[in-house]
Amino acid sequence: MTRSIGSRRRLPLVLSATLIAVASRLLVGSSSGLFVQAYQPTEEDEETRGANKKDIHHAEFRRRLVHKTLDPKSRANILAAHELAMAQAKAEGKFLYEERDDPFQVMSGETMKRQDAQAKKDGSTSPPKDAHIIEQLQSRTVTRGMDPLIQTEKDDENVEALDKKLPWLSNKESVHLAVDYLGVTVDAGRHYFPMSWWKRLIVYLHKMHYNLIHLRLADEENFAVRLDSYPQLAAAAISNKTYSPAELKELVAFAKQHHITIIPELQMPVRTTSWAGAVPGLIMPCANFICETSHYVPLNLDHPDLPAILEGVLKEVIAIFGNPSMLHLGGALFMDEAKECLREVAKQKKKEVPVEEDPATIYWIKWEGLIREVLKRLGYPEKKVIRTQHVASVDDEKEESVSSTKATEDTNKAKEESKPIQRVGGIEHYWMTFPQDGNSNNINSKNWVPLPESIVSTGLDFALDDDDSAWKIYKHTQQVLELSVKPKAILVGTMHLSTNLLPQQNLWLQRNVLARLVAVSMAATEEANKKELSEFNFELSYQRECLSLLPKALCELKGHTLVSRRSFLGLLSKRSQDWRQAICRRLTLETSEISFQPAVHARASAIAGGNDVFGKFFHRLPEFYQPNNERGCKKVLVDPVKALKQKVEKTGVILDMANSLAYPRLVKTLFVDFIAPLGMDWLQLRLSDDFAFVPQLEYNSLLAQSMWTDELPGLTEAPKIKFFHRLVNAANEWGVDIIPEISISTNAGGWINGGFLVQCPKLFCKDGTGIPNNIQDPLFLPLVYDVIRELRVTFGGSYFHLGTDERVDNLKCFEENGLKDDEDPPFGEFERNLQKLLAMLGIEPESVIRYDNEEQLTYKDRVGKITHYRAVPGGDMPDIREEEPFVVTVDLLESNIYSIYKRTRKLVGLKPMGIMGEIRSLDQEVWKQQYMGLRLIAFKMGFSEWEGEQSGDEELDHKEFIKEVLRICTALNYSECKEEGGGAEKLLKSEKIKEGDDDDAVDSAPETYPIATQKFRNALCTKHTRFRKSKRMKDEFVLQADQVVKTG
């Protein structure tokens, strides 16, 4: 059996074979085989597979395949074969599993449960018998003449004539409603409705016994009224049409004549981009958030004139609507709708909002206090204020899920201790749930106290809810009326719906709103609520009532919509996108700013690897790599080198692998040929700093970061740990300890592949140095443990170098990321945690080395008792803090060879515990041109004295120095001493030395070796950053420091 549509995974071979065999036996004699009819794609399928294939889940294709290719008998046979095969395989003890979303599994269990529950709730378990008739009616061309709310050229009757012509619903002029108010929402905050349309709507609603209109005046897109106090608020309405106060007063009066109350809504404090108008800074300046969503943008509560503006606007609106019986102040379904906007603004102000702190909650508490004061000054009763229902956010649901696993007393105690926010208002407008309809399943936000009275729109949103029939709408309305606490009003939602002379854009018509309102009205009377109508009797009554008021084309749809839901949502999505783009263009300008490339996958890998290693090994000390000494003996030094006795406890060489371009195998060659024969103690490998992370670790290989693969042909990856094993073997033969050097907290730009760097891309590209890791991230510590552990296991040794502690220098990066001037990163806390990690790995602070910082200060909480002083340019001596053990450095490529010898002797006079010669280039050509062998010998001679020498403080003059260097060089068989014509001797004699003991600088020092720092910085900037298009608010919408808004 082949599949027309690929599945995610196939059945195990044993199960598939058994299933086919059993199915064949069950289907013997059937000419149809597995599929009764060949699958023929329809136009709808072709369209889906073409334009929208990416948006359709595979399960949708499988569903269509099953429904169009299997008759009930064949499907039953396949299911029986499947069950028999499963039972047979289980009896034989064979491993098997069921395949998800397989064609014979028509729907998943959860989907079936959901559909069964909905069908049971609606009183119907099968599609309507006349579904095919509805589809035919929906396929008709929608014409302008279908809409009774739009006056056509042929229909020249005025509203008064229409009022006299139309009959009453149920042939009754007055009925007793089961609620105080039966109403409908009109979304003027997004669309302009002509006055003629309004009056015709009022007449129709009046005849249907509706007595309430909820008029939304302001939303994201429009501020629909040009107020006398603040006309500028309506200056940028997307529709380019607004209402004057006089027009609205006329509308209110006309509605009152028809016993209909109009209550205004001003959406606040979120969804307020229309408030921007010409009032600078009235909304939060989160330009990127505005252009990404345009929804949920909040008012700027810090605006100095916001209280006066709110008072002026509400005072005039209340006056226009004749001191309405209710005032809708909107709100937000979810508290955290505006959270990202608030975070964006906080970042602009260099104020980082802690993860555990909810900026939305803080904002809403402040808003409730502000609007309460405004209403008090206006004298408008708070109990008459309507607020949109708040429901639980995703975070609330997670917390609820966690708390449900705890003991009952703990849960009750937590509820008692919580302090819900006291919201302004007296009437809750429900869109998602019913008031007091539940127990543990109620999704009302636990942060808010429900308001005393209620208005219900739940399940009656004709814009976005399912395309229910008139019967289902009727039953749902009755369900609302059967609530234990009867609502003050039933309000049918029509948000997003518009009217238009073009039928294709007339969403009120497309959603068949008027015909569906008939079904709600039929259920909302006390008489209807006492009668139990069957579906058949209801449909007869509905057709009679509907046809008495509305065109046949609308009524015969039986409450269904004129167009399919899919077509409607497509149009609505396109219109919303156009709105969002228009708002973005009006309020913002496009800018380009540099940012780091997203490191989501690398960070996830680093977190997983770090946690894995920490979880496996944190409870025991690491087992070190055991060097393999194949020859079974130590290397022997040549006699001239053995005669040199070092005057410092520890000596060695630093190889800068992080900043040098060299093949990994070359590092071992340079060590074996040049460094090891000089008999020093340490080989320090710089593996991580601002520019690179060299080793490819076993558990976190993605951390490896260098530009080697781009610069060196044939090198495809950073050196793996096994390379360092070979280097450790070689070092062990010479009795040399390898000290790994990595910078972790500061100057750690090379860690960029870990995804934990502080976000400062401008500094990263400009200076390239001073880039710290985000030491505040708790997920960073397990990664640090992994890195140190792998290096500790690989190199062993008695010492570990943790690089820099440049806290002040790295503040620039934190400041670019939003750190305020009066704040400091928690370096001390990180160092204390780091010390705990090192203790787990058996690393004592006394064996940890750290570089001295620019402020020349050893912080008390710094991990590492040994201070490492870098080489000071120009031959100056470092400022030593003698109370602590320290190591000094000589730059072996900075000056001429004799100066290296003299400078080393001076540093030895400081009595350090160790002295290191730093080589920041591993380029073979540089070593050859700069006679690296001679420089290493000069360094060795500088910290040594000859065996048997009476005075170790006597300094060799230039001639004696040349003689001794050449003697050692020849004994070591260095290539420099094999050059024809005595190149080494000529070089040494050509060096010009200044007179005087206080100045050992050269007259003409060799050209400084080529360090790749600039090259690295440019390459890393190109590789790891991008110019991201972002947005900023136009100046006219930002409140400047010297601006004061003129209040009304």
Automatic annotation (TrEMBL):
Record carries keyword Hydrolase = yes
Q: Where is the active site?
A: E337
Bias type Basic and acidic residues, positions: 111-131, 407-419
In what residue span(s) does the Glycoside hydrolase family 20 catalytic domain sit? Answer: 181-340
- Any single biological process term in GO: carbohydrate metabolic process
**According to its UniProt record, which reaction does this protein catalyse?**
Hydrolysis of terminal non-reducing N-acetyl-D-hexosamine residues in N-acetyl-beta-D-hexosaminides
- What this protein is called in its record is beta-N-acetylhexosaminidase
Origin species: Seminavis robusta
